[in-house]
Amino acid sequence: MDTIEQTLAVATEHHRAGRTTEAERLYREVLAASPGHPDALHLLGVVALQGGRPAEAVDLIGQAVAGDPTSPLLQANLGHALHATGQARDAALCFARALTLLTNEGEGWGNVSALTGLIRRYDDETRRAAAAEVDAAYAMGDVMRRHSLLFLLDGDIAHYAALTDAVLEDPMRFTVPSIHYAFWGMAMQLFQGAARRGDSGAFQSGNFTDYYRLMVDETALRFHLRRRMKRATPRGEVKRIALITNQMLGAGHQPTADAFDFARRLQDEFGREVVIINPNAMAITGENGFVPEYTYNITEEYEGEQVIAAFGARVRMMSFPQKRFDEEKVNAIVDYVDGFDPDVIVAFGGSNVVADLFSGARPVICLPTSSGLPLSMARLVLGYGEADTTQGWPADMAERFRPFSFGWTLPPAGPERSRADFGLPDAGPDGGPLFLVVGNRLDQEAGPEFLALADSLLDRLPEARIAVAGGVESLPQRIAALRNADRVHTLGDVDDVRALHRLATAYLNPRRQGGGGSAAFALADGVPVVTVAAGDVAAVAGPAFTVSDDDAYLERAAALASDPAFRDRQSAEARARFAEAGDRRTSVERLLAYALEAQTA
After folding, report:
1. Residue 365's beta-bridge partner residues?
2. What region holds the Glycosyl transferase family domain (predicted)?
3. How far apart are CA 435 and CA 508, in angstroms?
4. 124, 92 Cβ separation under 8 angstroms
5. CA angle 541-542-547, nearest 5°?
6. Domain 419-581 class in CATH
């Protein structure tokens, strides 16, 4: 070879093609000619790591980093080598240095999110050390990225408090779409339970509530909505209802099914004129550097005014699929709502920005689709479950609260099916205990703690299996690392979950905010729920199905599997609970009464 660079180029070609023996020989040839060559040291270390020699990789890549400490790639690969040798803290600090270098260069979401994901595998102390490393070396002035990144690393709510304070102190530093994007990014992280330090409840009822109100006010001000909106006079009647949801996504999306169900009942059973407004107002495109990148889906065919049909019913809908949150789109929504001239607006789901823009001009009722504090400027804010309280809420929201139960409409039940129909093997004459985990966000919600709990349950019950229903991407790889991975089955989206219920011993709920719909359907089919006393599932299931901690969780699940009489009692209680809390017709009737109260307030 004529030059070191040529030799290195040939070596890397061998490496990419999987010919690592030849690549290693040539990397060593480069080092013989140029001792300390950082690229050759680095790539030779990568070969060692790939060949199962992590200690050697640490030595080689460490020498490369000493020669070039400014390379994010070298830092990241040193982190991988350190991780493989069990040096978690040192690995996390290397990933943090790589992350800082990328971020200070203005790197986009992909590699930044990947590196934060690597750090989030570790314990809280290690994550805090990595966050401190990033914080100390962060050189950009982007407050959105800095504090969202630090929160993602260590889960300290203080970072979100700092971010919201920056916006509250000087909102004109930020565009409306940027404020909006950061709001949805924080909201989703909080919904998924990512906070690990600090009082997230106090944050949501304080800083975050103030941020939300400022966001609505700034949108109305900068988009000139106050002078554009028609102010409705009190009417003392409820004939026309605009149900404004954050997004309608079609089949398989439970909030979409619920919004449609409320609308068709108001229309067909109670004779009101109803239109669903689908603004697609959640974050659809990235508007600032907030991490992790957060964008929601839209359904392209939902465009303009149309009639949507399901379960023998038809409901009018106006949909705005434009992938932006800007003045043109919001003005178009305002003009359509004013043209319909509703007597009442139902803000379907908490944090319904578009509905709250009308709060000063028309009566608005917030109908939350989740338990907890719904951020809303509506005249009346309804509960999610009958036992909801306003403890910890801001005083003005507590005054607007009204008790309510969200209610449920069961999906149709198909014919009997066997475990084999779902791809589940039988074990013994009755198939053994079968536990269900159901959800649309299980990649995020079924975290390491829940998987460890599931593994412990399967250790205890050698004949048991767990079936995971719902679309997942990363979860199967994490399940594969479990001791009992062969008894945990990911089924993907299930076309008849009620047929699956009829095969199940119990429904297992991860620690999460959502999941209320799937738990309600399980109860209706007599499937006992096992959950800690927090989030939507606990609100739907009630105290008979909640436990205090992980030990009690395991005891309850094991008892349901081993004690048929107890399981039968819990099954009867499940059906009774659904009959008590699941009657959606009663919920719609109460909604109309509250609508009249809001109209005449």
Report:
1. 346, 380
2. 431-576
3. 7
4. no
5. 95
6. alpha beta
Tokens of 239: 């004939």
Greater confidence (318 vs 108) lies with 318
Is the bond into 433 cis (omega within 30 degrees of 0)?
no
Q: 240-407+585-600 maps to which CATH number?
A: 3.40.50.2000
As a whole number of angstroms, the distance between CA 494 and CA 382 comes to 32
Contacts 24+ apart (CB under 8 A), 91-97: 91/122, 92/118, 92/119, 92/122, 92/126, 92/127, 92/129, 92/130, 93/129, 93/130, 93/133, 94/65, 95/119, 95/130, 96/129, 96/130, 96/131, 96/133, 96/134, 96/153, 97/69, 97/72, 97/133, 97/137
Taking the domains of the chain in order of start, what are their residue ranges? 3-174, 240-407+585-600, 419-581
* Per-residue confidence (pLDDT) for residue 430, from 0 to 100: 58
The torsion angles phi and psi of 121, rounded to 5 degrees, stand at -70, -20
Q: Using the CB atoms, write b or e for 412-445: b if 16+ within 10 Å.
A: eeeeeeebeebebeebeeebbbbbbbbbbbbbbb
Question: For residue 156, what is the DSSP state?
Answer: B
User: Tokens 């048991």 identify what position?
Assistant: 464
Q: What is the pLDDT of residues 32-60, one digit of tens each?
A: 788 878 888 888 888 888 889 999 999 99
Give the C-alpha separation, 483 to 549, whole Å: 22
Check if the beta carbon of residue 256 is closer than 8 Å to that of residue 315: no
Q: What SS3 string covers 273-304?
A: EEEEEECCCCCCCCCCCCCCCCCCCCCCCCCE
Structure tokens at 98: 């790589």
The closest of 559, 566, 529, 533 to 545, measured between CA atoms, is 529
Q: Tell me the pTM.
A: 0.88
In Å, the largest CA–CA distance within the chain is: 90
**Which 8-state DSSP code applies to residue 370?**
S
CB 90 within 8 A of CB 99: no
Q: What span, in angstroms and rounded, lies between the C-alpha atoms of 437 and 458?
A: 14
- Residue 428 pLDDT exceeds 60: no
Q: Which amino acid is at 369?
A: T
**Which structure tokens are listed for 65?**
């980093």
Fold of 3-174: 1.25.40
Same-fold call for 3-174 versus 240-407+585-600: no
Whole-angstrom distance, CA of residue 268 vs CA of residue 270: 6
